[in-house]
Every structure is written in structure tokens, then in C-alpha cells.
């Protein structure tokens, strides 16, 4: 069985994941509540994959990944977070994350991501057996092979290198050919390769340089870039992006507190507009009664939300009734529906009213939930305010 460590500071989520994976005979799930506990688990166990949250007490996920890159570089990882941004995702993937999962997610999606990551890592490990592409090509040259070497980049790009009796005679990658294509592929990281014989080609060659000078040139270019481990490292940049996100959140909280303390007041519709301005990817946002009558609506994209109110009032009632029947779970707080092109998030403000938010799939769901939670009390005060 593959040993997978899940790192998150929410014990309920860890328990849910562990129970959700019980039927998978391939995986044995271990858990830790922060980066420090995770490192202890890494010291004591032979782990095949780490799945970590980013924001945690004691030691956060970025610190954990930084230590892992030094002390446990052979262990692959997945990141899960409710605070993702496109830049953060890009930096984490550059630092080696096999996948980025945005919270909230369902257990089935996590299970699929874990299995996919394990398969990809195993295939990558077999394909080069720890060798860099340059070392692999040198072996092909030393053994004087006549082969077609296919090189696959993790992004899905691919290229070809052709050898005749150990001599590199051609290369192709994207629209590039010859030396330019070979140098492009030598700059790729975490590649996998396949190799097959091919009929001896015509005598002509599109290469201007032999293999060794190309390898020297590729190494020189990497040095000029600072190399993959230069610190302007992606993990340090990811730490800064996460801190920026946190600082913006604190500023917004402070602004909201000032508004409350100074008795700042506005109508519900104006407040919904203010919330939408702070949210990422909102299609429409509204406050609706459990009778299906909309109290206030802000529709910045002009989305067709005519049926939203009545239908989701009905959904909220059904879900609330179902949750009430499951003893020990407490009251319904939030409901999330995932459609092909959008998420629809509904959350009770009072027993009579809920807020409904339609969010595009390109939006950041974690940001929407965070902003919504921050304004919930203000909406509640407006709704119970005497006439």
C-alpha cells in the first residue's frame, strides 16, 4: 500500500478524509495537524506522497515544503488551499507541486488527485531512473545507439531527439528544430522519456552542434538564469504571495471594523455591491427569504438569475431538513452546488433569510467564502434592524 500523509489544521477534515479513503485498498492514510508534526511523520515513515494545506499554526505548509525540498526531495507533494491565486498556483507548481486543490473539495476529487499524482510520480521515476535528461542523452551517445528519443514535459508539451550511431542528427520541439529545439528540451525539468529504434535516416542533419557542446551551452544558460534552486526560489515567492493575501484580508477586516465602530450604515443592496467588489468572479449576489422572495440583488454581469431565488430557497429548505434529521451535526450553515460553469454558494444569515452567491469557475472560491463570512454579521444586523 502507498502511504499518503494529509496535513491540515482542521481535525474534522482529517477525520473525514481518513474515513472517505477507507475503501481504497491501495492507500494507507496518515495525518498531521501542522508542518512540524508532518516532519516527524516523514522522519518515522517511508511516505509516498504528502498532501498539505498552506495556512497552519506552528509550521505552515510553505515552511514544510521548503524543509522537504532539502531533507526529503524524493517525496512528491500536492497542495490544498482555500486561499489560492493564479500566481500562487504557478509558483507552487514551479516549486514541484504535482497538483493544487482548491478548498472546498469532495473526497472523491481528492482521491482521484492522489492516485493521479502517485501514478505520475511512479512513471517519472521509471522513465529516467533518477537521471537528468542530459545524463540520459550522454548514455545514448556512449552506447552509439540509433534511436528516436521522445521527451515529455509535465505541461503536456513534447519534443524529439534523433540519434544515428550515437550522433545527435536532429531535434524537434514545438516550432523549433535543430540546436534551438535541443536547447529548449534540455531546459525542461521533471521530464519523462520514451525511446524506440527508427530506420536510419538520410545523411543530412539539421544540427549545427554536437551533443557535448549543446550540453555545455544548456548548463551555461541555467547558470545565467540562477538555476532551479536559486533563491529567488518559487517557495519564497509563494510565501510572499500568501502573506500579501493575508495582509489584504486583515486590511479588509480592519476597514469593516471601522465601519461598524463609526456606525456606518448602508442599505442591503449597497452592501451586496461592496461585497461583490471584494470578491473574485462573482456573477450575482442576493439576499433571499426562505419563502423565495428576493430582498436585494446585485447582478454585475447581467447573468440570468430569474429562477435562482425560488429554486434555491427550496434547495435550502431540503438541505436544512436533511441536516436536522442527522443528529449531532448541528444547524445548517452553508450549502455549495457545483455546476459546469459556476459554483452557487448559499449561506443562512438568519433562520428566515440566506445569501446566495453565483461564482464563475474561474473565480477564487476561497476568497468569496472569506469575504462572505466577514460581512455576515453586518447583513444580520440590517435584516433584524427595527423598522
Concise overview:
The protein is α/β, with parallel strands linked by helices.
Fold and architecture overview:
The protein is an alpha/beta fold. It has 3 domains: 2-128 and 231-238, Response regulator (Rossmann fold, 3-Layer(aba) Sandwich); 133-221, no CATH class; 265-384, Beta-Lactamase, CATH 3.30.450.30. 45% of the residues lie in helices and 22% in strands. The chain contains 12 helices and 15 strands. The protein has helices spanning 11-20, 35-44, 61-71, 86-94, 107-128, 133-142, 178-186, 211-225, 234-261, 268-278, 308-325, 365-384; strands at residues 2-7, 27-32, 49-53, 77-81, 100-102, 147-152, 158-164, 167-173, 176-177, 192-197, 282-289, 294-298, 334-338, 342-348, 353-360. The strands form 3 sheets. A 5-stranded parallel β-sheet has the order 2-1-3-4-5, sandwiched between helices. Helix 10 (268-278) runs antiparallel to helix 12 (365-384). The radius of gyration is 27 Å and the shape is elongated.
Show unreliable segments.
Answer: 227-231, 255-265
**Spatial gap, N to C terminus:** 64 Å
Oligomer: single chain
Number of helices, where a helix is a run of at least 4 consecutive DSSP H or I residues: 12
**Domain unit count:** 3
What's the arrangement of secondary structure elements?
Layout: E1 2-7, H1 11-20, E2 27-32, H2 35-44, E3 49-53, H3 61-71, E4 77-81, H4 86-94, E5 100-102, H5 107-128, H6 133-142, E6 147-152, E7 158-164, E8 167-173, E9 176-177, H7 178-186, E10 192-197, H8 211-225, H9 234-261, H10 268-278, E11 282-289, E12 294-298, H11 308-325, E13 334-338, E14 342-348, E15 353-360, H12 365-384
Parallel strand pairs: 1-2, 1-3, 3-4, 4-5
Antiparallel strand pairs: 6-7, 6-10, 7-8, 8-9, 11-12, 11-15, 13-14, 14-15
Helix pairs in contact: 2-3, 3-9, 4-9, 7-8, 9-12, 10-12
Amino acid at each position: 500500500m502507498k502511504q499518503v500523509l494529509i496535513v491540515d489544521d482542521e481535525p474534522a477534515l482529517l477525520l473525514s478524509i481518513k474515513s472517505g479513503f477507507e475503501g481504497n485498498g491501495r492507500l494507507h492514510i496518515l495525518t498531521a495537524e501542522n508542518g512540524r508534526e508532518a516532519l516527524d511523520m516523514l522522519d518515522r515513515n517511508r511516505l509516498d506522497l504528502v498532501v498539505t494545506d498552506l495556512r497552519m499554526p506552528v509550521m505552515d505548509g510553505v515552511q514544510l515544503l521548503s524543509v522537504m525540498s532539502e531533507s526529503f526531495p524524493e517525496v512528491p507533494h500536492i497542495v490544498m488551499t482555500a486561499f489560492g491565486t493564479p500566481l500562487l498556483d504557478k509558483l507552487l507548481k514551479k516549486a514541484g507541486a504535482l497538483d493544487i486543490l482548491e478548498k472546498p473539495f469532495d473526497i472523491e476529487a481528492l482521491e482521484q488527485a492522489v492516485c493521479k499524482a502517485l501514478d505520475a510520480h511512479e512513471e517519472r521515476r521509471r522513465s529516467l531512473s533518477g537521471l537528468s535528461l542530459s545524463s540520459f542523452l550522454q548514455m545514448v551517445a556512449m552506447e552509439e545507439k540509433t534511436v528516436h528519443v521522445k521527451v515529455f514535459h509535465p505541461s503536456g508539451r513534447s519534443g524529439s531527439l534523433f540519434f544515428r550511431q550515437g550522433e545527435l542528427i536532429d531535434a524537434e520541439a514545438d516550432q523549433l528544430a535543430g540546436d534551438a529545439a535541443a536547447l529548449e528540451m534540455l531546459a525542461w525539468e521533471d521530464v519523462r522519456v520514451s525511446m524506440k529504434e527508427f530506420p536510419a535516416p538520410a545523411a543530412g542533419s539539421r544540427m549545427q552542434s554536437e551533443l557535448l557542446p549543446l550540453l555545455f551551452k544548456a548548463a551555461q544558460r541555467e547558470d545565467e538564469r540562477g538555476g532551479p534552486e536559486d533563491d529567488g526560489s518559487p517557495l519564497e515567492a509563494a510565501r510572499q504571495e500568501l502573506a500579501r493575501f493575508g495582509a489584504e484580508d486583515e486590511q479588509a477586516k480592519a476597514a469593516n471594523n471601522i465601519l461598524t465602530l463609526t456606525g456606518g450604515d448602508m442599505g442591503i443592496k449597497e452592501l451586496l455591491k461592496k461585497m461583490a467588489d471584494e470578491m473574485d468572479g462573482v456573477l450575482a449576489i442576493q439576499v433571499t427569504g426562505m419563502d423565495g422572495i428576493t430582498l436585494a440583488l446585485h447582478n454585475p454581469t447581467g447573468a440570468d438569475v430569474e429562477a435562482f431565488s425560488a429554486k434555491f430557497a427550496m434547495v435550502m429548505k431540503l438541505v436544512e431538513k436533511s441536516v436536522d434529521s442527522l443528529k449531532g451535526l448541528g444547524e445548517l450553515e452553508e450549502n455549495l452546488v457545483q455546476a459546469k460553469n459556476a459554483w452557487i454558494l448559499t449561506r443562512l444569515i438568519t433562520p428566515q433569510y440566506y445569501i446566495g452567491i453565483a461564482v464563475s469557475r474561474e473565480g477564487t472560491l476561497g476568497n468569496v467564502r472569506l469575504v462572505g463570512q466577514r460581512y455576515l454579521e453586518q447583513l444580520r444586523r440590517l435584516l433584524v434592524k427595527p423598522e
